[in-house]
Amino acid sequence: MNSKIKLSTLKKGLLPLSLAVSVVLSGCASFGKGIAEAVLEKNDAEDTRICQVRGKPFAGIAPSLAKKHGKTKVLMVHGVGDRLPGYSTEFLEKLARQLEVTAKSSTYKDIRLVSPLDAEKNLGNLRITQLKNADDSKELLFYELTWSEITRAQKELLGFDNSGEYSYKRAEVNDMMKKFGNDTGPDPIIYLGDTRTQILRAFSQSVCWMGKDGWEQIPADSRTPCATIDSFSENIGEDDFVFISHSLGSRITIDGLQRLASVLENPKKYSTANYDVTPPPRMRKLLQQKKIQIFMMSNQLPMLQLGRELPEVAEQKADYCLASGSKYASRLFNETSIVAFSDPNDLLSYAIPHNFNEKYLDSRLCIKVTNVNINVAKIFDAFGMGKFASPMEAHLGYSKDDRVIAMIAKGIGNKQVSPLVKEKCEWTEITD
């Protein structure tokens, strides 16, 4: 009898714990300050989350804004899940405060991306925002690519599973998780198919619009394809390009730049009777002098490489990137700096291994890698049973984390590094 009472009491004690863990796993904590959240946040006074940076120093965006000539252009590429234009607003406002360019133009400009091969084929939306500081001495042009319109129609195949006919049979938390899975899970699968070409065209069109001279040259509203790369501004040599991506968006960015390298090296292969991509030689030389920064949040390059072909040009970095190399004149950029942010508690994020760059990334990009191992999700003591962090928050929290945004804005290993990063992050320079 006594053992039965103890068993009953144990079951009652485990029920709240089970519920609390389920709520956190599903990302529901943000919906309200419930019992589970209150218990898990009781030890939240001290922030002990790790921030470890391993790799080369990087400048961030700030030095570019300080230049007297040229413009600073940032392209944001989202990851899995359905997005609407404006999804990056919170991130952009935080970044603008770090960079002290908080004065916005009166409105943004939306460009409806269309295929240069078929003007009736929608490729998503490119929203451009102009930000300046108080005396107009600094200007940031922010390009937000929303490509999910391309995959939306195919994901409707799973719409029946989200309907009341099926969803009402699930427990509430499980139903929320299933709908999240139906929204995000198909995108990497779809990207492996023919749709990848359309998404990469959306990326290429976005880069083409970035190549225009400035805010005044961008139409307020357009459904016209951006002309080929030969229409890039004559000032492109002085402009700085920065790419910011999340999860699948990192794969899209790398694939898009690798495709650009192939187009420039063999334009005849990509040209058609109505679509000439042959660039002027001067334009290619200007690109080859550029140093590009890519900031990857929830980096997934290792996972998304599984089952895929190797890049067109691999394991030839010395030939392409050293001035003495035999193929130095065929590189795409002078240098591409990748900063990969990964939370160990993000189940879908990975650091970039030491040998990954040479074997799996295009040699023509001349890539150097810095890994940032950072807890963006809060870590709690789960009732004395061990430490716990929400995998959902660990996957989605990068764009809200002040340390991540400070590093994107002002880098690390330089004189202007943010005091927050100095205090909260540990940096180890890798010299080889």
Summary keywords:
alpha/beta; 2 domains; 432 residues; 19 helices; two-stranded antiparallel sheet
Please provide a written account of the structure.
The protein has two domains: 1-42; 46-154 and 197-429, no CATH class. With 432 residues, the chain is α/β, with parallel strands linked by helices. The chain is built from 19 helices and 14 strands. Strands 1, 2, 3, 4, 5, 6, 7, 8, 9, 10, 11 and 14 form a twelve-stranded mixed beta sheet that branches. A two-stranded antiparallel sheet has the order 12-13. The N and C termini lie far apart (68 Å). It has helices spanning 2-25, 35-40, 62-65, 89-99, 149-155, 159-162, 164-167, 172-184, 186-191, 195-210, 248-265, 267-270, 281-288, 301-305, 317-321, 356-360, 391-396, 402-410, 419-424, and strands spanning 51-55, 72-77, 103-104, 109-114, 122-132, 139-146, 221-222, 240-246, 291-297, 335-342, 367-374, 379-381, 387-389, 426-429. A hairpin with a 7-residue loop joins β4 (109-114) and β5. α4 (89-99) packs across α18 (402-410) and α10 crosses α11 (248-265). 37% of the residues lie in helices and 19% in strands.
Summarize the structure.
With 432 residues, the protein is α/β, with parallel strands linked by helices. The protein has helices at 2-25, 35-40, 62-65, 89-99, 149-155, 159-162, 164-167, 172-184, 186-191, 195-210, 248-265, 267-270, 281-288, 301-305, 317-321, 356-360, 391-396, 402-410, 419-424; strands at 51-55, 72-77, 103-104, 109-114, 122-132, 139-146, 221-222, 240-246, 291-297, 335-342, 367-374, 379-381, 387-389, 426-429. The strands form 2 sheets. Strands 1, 2, 3, 4, 5, 6, 7, 8, 9, 10, 11 and 14 form a 12-stranded mixed beta sheet that branches. It has a two-stranded antiparallel sheet with strand order 12-13.
